[in-house]
Every structure is written in C-alpha cells, then in structure tokens.
Design brief:
elongated, Arc Repressor Mutant, subunit A, 52% helix, 3-stranded antiparallel sheet
Length: 201
C-alpha cells in the first residue's frame, strides 16, 4: 500500500463510501479538502481519477483505489493517529472482519444496488394503481406507469409473471368498453389478448 497521509486516506474512504463520482464541493462537505498536491499524488498513483466537468473537478476511485481501500480497512490506524482516527480504524477493522466472514467485497457493501427488474417494476406499479391487492388494473394504465419501458420487454415480463402463482391476466369481458389504447396495450398470451392484471400478493 502506498505511503498516504491521513488526509489522502480519508479522501479515498469518502470516495469508497459514496461509490460515485464526487465533485470537489461534495468532497469538502463529506470529508477533508483535497488540495492539488494530494490530488496529483492520488492520480499519479492510479488510486483516483479526477476529471473536469464544467468549472469543477470530479473524483472517482479506480479499481486500484478500491483495492487500496480494502487494504486500509484492515490496516489499522496510521502512526500517530489521534483518538478519533483510532476509533475510525477500529470500526473499519470490524467492517473488514465482516467482509471476510461473509465473503463480500467493498463494492458489495458500498456499490450501487442493482436496478429493479422489469418484473419488480410491474409489481410496484400494480401496487400503486390497484384499489386493493388482487384488484384489476388495466394494462393501459400499467404500461403508462412503467415510464417508457419497451413494449416487447413489458410483454415478455408479463408472460413470465403470468406463469407465477397469484398473478392473473384476463381479457376484458365487455369488449365494447375497450378503447383503441386498451386494445393496443393488451398482451397476447395463448393467442388471446389480455387487458387486465391482478396480483394477489
């Protein structure tokens, strides 16, 4: 592990915790100020990548930076660390033991969660639209609530959900009440257009 000052270590840990590109003003709000010598050093060591966006600098950990943070988690406090620094590294040491026991990486803990699947989004949209669990919701409204998800993708997700317990897709019994939008929003399953969905749980 490179010989890093306390400030440089703290910058890496803030970038780790944020797990995103961090503009200078945010970095100062969350931790220490990164001056030019420290920024140049961390960039030259390949631990961070600093880019200019408009009139501000934005910093992000590199893969090597993530590995260095993993080393920091288990390294213990630096020499001459004061009480707060020792406390921080005590907490980091406990985090390191947890990661080892659970066979997790720092990215597993601090990384962005995966986006919800389209099936999960359909369930969430249904829950928002349905008057009660198991109530019928038109696919016209459901598709509109999915914020532009592709038609083929939604159709495939609906067909997958249809095979799961507690999920029903049916045609509208009174075909006369269907609008052109309702007909267009239907998903065809088994050669039959389905216009309504109900999810029991």
């Amino acid at each position: 592990m490179a010989d890093l000052t306390g400030t440089e270590r703290a910058v890496l840990l803030v970038l780790m915790a944020q797990s995103r590109p961090v503009p200078n003003p945010d970095l100062v709000a969350l931790g220490p100020k990164l001056d030019k010598p420290g920024r140049d050093k961390l960039n030259n060591l390949g631990l961070i990548e600093s880019t200019r966006e408009g009139n501000r600098l934005v910093h992000e950990l590199t893969d090597k930076g993530w590995r260095t943070c993993r080393d920091l988690v288990s390294a213990g406090p630096p020499p001459r660390a004061a009480g707060p620094g020792k406390a921080l590294y005590t907490v980091l040491g406990a985090l390191g033991r947890y990661l080892d026991a659970a066979d997790l990486s720092l990215a597993d803990v601090f990384g962005s969660p995966p986006p919800p699947s389209l099936e999960d989004r359909i369930r969430a949209a249904y829950a928002d639209l349905a008057p009660r669990p198991g109530g019928w919701v038109g696919l016209t409204k459901l598709r509109a609530a999915l914020n532009g998800a592709g038609r083929d993708d939604v159709d495939a997700a609906l067909r997958t959900l249809y095979r799961q317990p507690g999920i029903s897709l049916i045609p509208e019994e009174n075909q006369k009440v269907l609008t052109d939008a309702d007909r267009s929003a239907a998903v065809v399953i088994g050669g039959q257009p389905k216009h309504l969905i109900a999810i029991e749980h």
